[in-house]
Amino acid sequence: MIIRKSREEIMKMREAGRIVAGVLEMLEKHIRPGVKTASLDSLAEEFIRERNGTPSFLGYRGFPASICTSINDVVVHGIPGRTRLREGDIIGIDVGVILDGYQGDAARTYTVGEVGEAALRLMDATRDSLYAGIDACRQGNRLGDVSNAIQRVAEERGFSVVVQFVGHGIGKEMHEEPQIPNFGPPGRGPLLETGMTFALEPMVNEGTYEVEVDEDDGWTVRTKDGKLSAHFEHTVAITGEGPSILTLP
Fold it and tell me: Which end of the chain is more exposed for a tag (fewer CB within 10 A), N or C?
């Protein structure tokens, strides 16, 4: 069942989302060659707690950190640690916050110093596919219209969308119904109605869509061919006036 939120609940989600957006803005100033991913995690947790929020990810199903740090061929769920960023890397950072019982969730991929043209094109395509999906989050559309909009943009640019991991509903819980694939035909799935809130998160790969999970930690998801991946995400509410992004500053 898809849980529709009241105006008051959406406002609470927006407040959580503002903290998420603040984390992503703050971390941009610290992303440079030589920085440890564990340092980014510490900065994020401090930022969240100073604003009376709780990191959604910390301890969730055993995840050991407040953010996910996914570098180069890591698609999602990278664990912060002693790894240092290097010139030319790209890093996806995923952040979740609980505030007053409601969740916000967003992700962004950053460049570390100067990066190659292929990485920039991948990032642009992923970001654009996210906003195409957001634009399709309109009352009267079907969920498949959102998924198809994401897939179409990514594939038109020559990239592939990950099929094993998907977006999701969000509210009081991090993961609510429905699951939101980043692929599929339009015109199918549940009818979109006001009050629905989704975390849209295209994960787009430079090469194959196939991924694998590291056996060492059981979390880190990598592209099967070792090529780059990018990840962008926003929490979105469907309103009578169109889609409203809840994870903005």
Answer: N
pLDDT in tens, 84-94: 999 999 999 99
Tell me which residue of 82, 77, 116 sits closest to 93, measured CA to CA.
Answer: 77
pLDDT in tens, 14-35: 999 999 999 999 999 999 999 9
Give a yes or no: residue 190 inside a domain: yes
Question: DSSP 3-state assignment of 28?
Answer: helix
For the full predicted model, state whether its pTM sits above 0.90.
yes
CB within 8 Å of 118: residues ≥ 6 apart: 206, 228
Closest CA to 17 of 232, 171, 202: 171
| H-run or E-run covering 106 | strand 102-111
How buried is 29 (Cβ within 10 angstroms: 0-12 exposed, 13-18 middle, 19+ buried)?
exposed
Give the CATH number, domain containing residue 134.
Answer: 3.90.230.10
Sign of the CA dihedral with 117 first, then 222, 35, and 31 last: positive
Domains in the chain, number: 1
